[in-house]
Write a structure and sequence with these properties.
The protein is α+β, with helices and mostly antiparallel strands. The protein is built from one helix and eight strands. The longest helix has 21 residues, at 2-22.
Length: 135
């Protein structure tokens, strides 16, 4: 009886050790890095603008980790809390992406949200958004 318990203990111990080592060395998949350009020429945080005002939004994205290049970028737009609509979708294979976009503030009383999403080859995504209150 003691011999069976000892054998079960050894098997459980070996299984635990093997499970622990099988997860070593594998890099965890991480989402891409994405951020807004910050500066006087760019909108990079929620802001209010007069109707018709032209504004720029700059975005940079980069891969993370040793694998998983960027494979795409998507821009979505929503108005007054409605669901997002994709307004631009790009496919590419790059380590780094940087672009700026120009838009015009809409009709008074609206709140527009622009969402920018970077996509990695492994399917991981990361998004940032900015709200424009139209005056």
């Amino acid at each position: 009886m003691k011999k069976n318990i000892f054998i079960l203990f050894i098997l459980a111990l070996l299984s635990g050790i093997m499970l622990n080592f099988s997860s070593c060395g594998k890099e965890k998949s991480t989402p891409p890095d994405i951020s807004f350009y910050v500066g006087t020429a760019y909108v990079y945080e929620d802001t209010a603008l007069l109707h018709g005002t032209i504004f720029n939004i700059g975005v940079t994205a980069s891969k993370t980790g040793v694998d998983g290049l960027l494979t795409g970028f998507e821009i979505s737009h929503s108005m007054n809390g409605s669901s997002d609509s994709v307004i631009q979708k790009m496919s590419f294979i790059e380590q780094y992406f940087s672009q700026y976009y120009s838009y015009a503030a809409g009709d008074s009383g609206n709140v527009e949200r622009y969402t920018f999403t970077a996509i990695k080859a492994d399917g991981r995504t990361n998004s940032i958004s900015v709200n424009i209150t139209d005056l």
